[in-house]
From TrEMBL:
This is histidine kinase. SUPFAM superfamilies: ATPase domain of HSP90 chaperone/DNA topoisomerase II/histidine kinase, Homodimeric domain of signal transducing histidine kinase. Its main location: membrane. Residues 210-263 form the HAMP domain. It is found in: Cell membrane. Keywords: Kinase, Membrane, Phosphoprotein, Transferase, Transmembrane, Transmembrane helix, Two-component regulatory system. It comes from the Bacteria. It is an enzyme of class 2 (transferase). The keyword Endoplasmic reticulum does not apply. The keyword Transmembrane applies. Pfam families: HATPase_c, HisKA.
Length: 486
C-alpha cells in the first residue's frame, strides 16, 4: 500500500452512521442480555412446571395403587410401576409402551438401597419410535415412591397381581422436553424480534441524528461563507433550547468578536494612516515650500519643523510597534520583582519639565513590590506621567500605596479632567478628547492604550478614578513578596 494513501477504517466517518452503529451495538448487548435472562428464566419455570406435573402424577398413581386400582395407560407423563418378584411392569403409560415393557419392565426393580434419581432409557431397535421415541438412550430424572404389599388388603394385592410380600415402586419420568421446546421456540422468536428491533433501532437513530444535525449543517454552510474581511453573517438560533442552541449562540458570539476585531483592525489601520499622514503632510509641505523659495526660507525654522514632525513620526512608529508586540507576545515566563516606589521616585526625579512650570511630586515611602518586566513598568508609568504633563495646569502627584494584596499607584493632575461619558473611551487607540486633550500637545493617542495593555499583561487594572479636579489614573497590580535580603 502506498505510504501516502490514507488507511481505510471499518469505522464509518459519518456522525449519523457512527451514532446508529453505536446505538445498535448497545441495543444488541442489552437485547442479548435480556434474551439470555428470558431463556434461563423461561427454562427454569418450564422445568419447574414439568416437575410439579410429575409430582402430581406420582401422587395420583400412589393413591390409585393403594386402592388396588391398576392405573390407565393414558397419561401425559411417562410412568411405570414395578414390583419385586415380577419380571413385567405392574402398570405403565405415557409413552413407556414404546419400550415394550409388557415383556419386561424398563425401570430398575425396587431394592433396599433407595430409588435412583436419574435413569437411562434403554435402546430398543425393534419398535417404531412414536411421539416419545427419542427418549431411548437418554438420561432422565425420575421421581419414585415405594408401597409395601403388606400395607394393602389381600383383595388389593390380588387386583394388582403382586405377591403378598412384594414391594411396589412407582416411577414418574420428569420430561424437560416441553421446557426445551418452549425455550427453543422462544429463542427463535426472540432472535427474529431482536434482529428486526436492531434494524429499526439503527434506522431510527440514523434518521433522528440526521434530523437533529440539520441545524448544524445549516450552521456549517453559513459559517463557510464567513470571511475575515466580512464576518457579518449570523446563524439562526433554534428556539428549542437544546445543545444546538448553545452552539449557535456561541458561534454568533464568536462571529461577533471576529466582526468587532475586524472593525477594530480597520479602524486602527485608518487611524494609523491618518496619524501618519498629518506629520508627513506638514513635513512635506514645509520642505516643498523651502525648496520652492530657498532664498526666502527661514531654514532654521524649517529644519526645526522637520525635526519636530520626524520625532512625532518616530514616536508614533515606536508606539505602533509596541502595540503589535503586545498583541502577539505572551507574558514573560520568569518575571522579576520590581519596587514600584523606587521606580516612580526615579522617574519623577528625572522627568524633564522644561516646557511649562509644573510641580511633579512622588508620595511613597514604603517599598511596593510587584512581579513583572521592569522596562514594561517604566513604559507604563512614563506614559501616565506624559499624559498628565500634557494636560496638567500646575501640579502632578504620583502616589504609591500597599493595600492588602495589591499595589495601588495613582497619577493625579490638576488639568481640565475627563468627562464621565469618556472615562473608558480614552483608553481606546488613537482617541483624543476634542478640547483638553488635543493633537497640538504632541501625543500619539496610544499612550493610555499601551498603559492599559501593559497593566492587563501583568494581571492588573488601569482605570480613571472619579475626581472633582483634574484626572486621576489608578493602577492596581498584584502585590509580590519582598525579595530575599530586603
Amino acid at each position: 500500500m502506498n505510504a501516502t494513501e490514507p488507511r481505510r477504517r471499518w469505522w464509518p466517518r459519518s456522525v449519523r452512521a457512527r451514532t446508529a452503529l453505536a446505538v445498535a451495538s448497545t441495543a444488541a448487548v442489552i437485547l442479548a442480555a435480556m434474551g439470555w435472562w428470558v431463556h434461563r428464566d423461561l427454562y427454569r419455570q418450564s422445568t419447574q412446571i414439568a416437575t410439579e406435573q410429575a409430582v402430581q402424577q406420582l401422587l395420583a398413581l400412589n393413591d390409585q395403587l393403594r386402592e388396588g386400582v391398576v392405573p390407565a395407560r393414558a397419561s401425559a407423563v411417562p410412568y411405570e410401576v414395578v414390583a419385586t418378584g415380577r419380571r413385567t411392569a405392574v402398570a405403565y403409560g405415557g409413552g413407556m409402551e414404546d419400550f415394550d415393557p409388557g415383556t419386561h419392565h424398563v425401570m430398575p426393580a425396587p431394592t433396599g438401597e433407595g430409588s435412583p434419581n436419574y435413569v437411562r432409557m434403554p435402546v430398543n431397535r425393534d419398535y417404531t419410535p412414536g411421539i416419545r421415541g427419542d427418549m431411548a438412550g437418554e438420561m432422565y430424572r425420575v421421581l419414585a415412591a415405594d408401597i409395601e404389599a403388606d400395607e394393602l388388603s389381600s383383595d388389593e394385592v390380588a387386583a394388582l397381581g403382586i405377591a403378598a410380600d412384594a414391594r411396589l415402586r412407582v416411577y414418574v419420568v420428569v420430561l424437560p422436553r416441553a421446557a426445551e421446546e418452549i425455550t427453543e421456540a422462544t429463542d427463535r422468536l426472540l432472535l427474529r424480534a431482536g434482529l428486526v428491533g436492531l434494524v429499526l433501532i439503527a434506522a431510527i437513530a440514523y434518521f433522528t441524528v440526521r434530523v437533529a444535525l440539520r441545524p448544524v449543517e445549516a450552521i456549517r454552510v453559513l459559517t463557510a461563507s464567513v470571511t475575515a474581511s466580512d464576518p457579518r453573517e449570523r446563524v439562526t438560533v433554534p428556539a428549542t433550547g437544546h445543545e444546538i442552541t448553545a452552539l449557535a449562540t456561541t458561534i454568533n458570539a464568536t462571529l461577533q468578536r471576529l466582526d468587532n476585531a475586524a472593525a477594530q483592525q480597520r479602524r486602527f489601520v485608518a487611524d494609523a494612516a491618518h496619524e501618519l499622514r498629518s506629520p508627513l503632510t506638514t513635513l512635506l509641505a514645509s520642505l516643498e515650500v523651502a525648496l520652492a523659495y530657498p532664498e526666502r526660507t527661514d531654514w532654521p525654522a524649517a529644519v526645526t519643523t522637520a525635526a519636530r514632525q520626524t520625532r512625532r513620526l518616530q514616536a508614533l512608529a515606536e508606539d505602533l510597534l509596541l502595540l503589535a508586540r503586545l498583541d502577539t507576545r505572551a507574558p514573560a515566563a520568569d518575571p522579576e520583582t520590581v519596587d514600584l516606589t523606587a521606580l516612580a521616585t526615579r522617574l519623577t526625579g528625572e522627568y524633564p519639565l522644561t516646557e511649562r512650570a509644573l510641580t511633579l511630586t512622588c508620595d511613597g515611602t514604603a517599598p511596593a513590590y510587584a512581579h513583572g518586566d521592569p522596562d514594561a513598568y517604566e513604559r507604563l508609568l512614563r506614559n501616565l506621567i506624559d499624559n498628565a504633563a500634557r494636560h496638567a495646569a500646575h501640579r502632578i502627584q504620583v502616589t504609591i500605596r500597599n493595600q492588602d494584596a495589591w499595589v495601588v499607584l495613582t497619577v493625579h493632575d490638576d488639568g481640565p479632567g475627563v468627562p464621565t461619558e469618556d472615562t473608558e473611551r480614552i483608553f481606546e487607540r488613537f482617541v483624543r478628547l476634542d478640547d483638553a486633550r488635543s493633537r497640538d500637545h504632541g501625543g500619539t493617542g496610544l499612550g493610555l492604550a499601551i498603559a492599559r495593555d501593559l497593566a492587563h499583561r501583568h494581571r492588573g487594572t488601569l482605570t480613571l478614578a472619579p475626581r472633582t479636579l483634574g484626572a486621576c489614573f489608578r493602577l492596581r497590580l498584584p502585590r509580590a513578596p519582598a525579595p530575599a535580603g530586603k
